[in-house]
Amino acid sequence: MVSLRAGTAYSIAPLPKKRKLILQKKQTKIAVLAAMKHFLQEWRSSIHLLSDTDLNFPLHLHKSAELVLVKDGALTLLLPDLEYTLKQGDLAVIFPGQVHGYKTAASSRISTIIFDPVFAQDHWQDLETRRPLTPFLAAKNVDHDIYYAFERLYRKDLQGRFTERSAWVRLIMAMVMPRLELTSADTAGDRDLVYRIVAYLSAHYTEHITLDDLAKRLHVNKYYLSHAFSAKLGSGFPNYLNCLRCDHAKMLLTSTSEDILTVGELCGFDTQRTFHRVFKGYTGMTPREYRLSSEKNDG
């Protein structure tokens, strides 16, 4: 018995079993629809377009595939033991899990497409299990339709048309993959310290992590680890970590409507002030300026 009004008592009867079952089914349906909506949002944001000038980025890896088209100048593609100089019209093709980086000696202007391997459709299994012997196509081997597809992808009128964007990515990969000579992915790198550093930080850079934490995770002396960063990755630990975080921020700023504060938090920055300072040091612009500049260029 529950008293709802002074002097009056009411009895609340339990829900009938049938009504209770309907309610449970409705709640389950709502939860499923919410999960599907979240999945679709994640899936639809898994094609990222970036434009960069004078790119310098240390060795890293990620689960996505990556295409980098050199529009002007020259870009050095870095692999753990090799370097390739890419010139205007050349196209770098990076497979998921492949350690790579970039360096600009004088000047470069590039367009980058980063996408989930599933968008390559018939070629996704090769992307996951193999590697190109030479991870780029020289301009003379790049079909002109690939250049056109890049231009089409970057047009502002495609921003909200995900189906068309994914179709252009599939078309590009359908033309790129037959031109690559592939070999089995080398798993020996899993035992190499550089690979272990890159793999761990690529997966955990959004978390609070120190050099001591990383040394413990990798079971390596922290002073030896610090030396490895300088000698093998060409960057100190803090700079390397901030580079990964800023690159992630660039993606979120150009492909989502998340507010600036949230972007910084999602990328692992402790405060908005730190995010602004580090991001401006890395890009020459504040996060807000970078977003506005990207929107202007897309137009």
If you had to describe this structure to a student in words, what would you say it looks like?
The radius of gyration is 24 Å and the shape is globular. The longest helix is centred in the N-terminal third of the chain and has 28 residues, at 17-44. The protein is of the alpha+beta class. It has 2 domains: 47-184, Sandwich (Jelly Rolls), CATH 2.60.120.280; 188-294, Arc Repressor Mutant, subunit A, CATH 1.10.10. Mean pLDDT is 84; it is low at 1-12 and 29-44. α3 (144-153) runs antiparallel to α4 (162-176), α8 (237-255) crosses α10 and α8 (237-255) packs across α11 (287-298). The protein starts with a strand and ends with a helix. The strands form 3 sheets. Strands 3, 4, 5, 6, 7, 8, 9 and 11 form an 8-stranded antiparallel sheet that branches. The chain contains 11 helices and 12 strands.
How many helical stretches?
A: 11
Q: What does the average pLDDT come to?
A: 84
What is the CATH domain class of the largest domain? Mainly Beta
Overall domain count? 2
What is the CATH homologous superfamily assignment of the largest domain? Answer: Regulatory protein AraC
Proportion of residues in helical segments: 40-55%
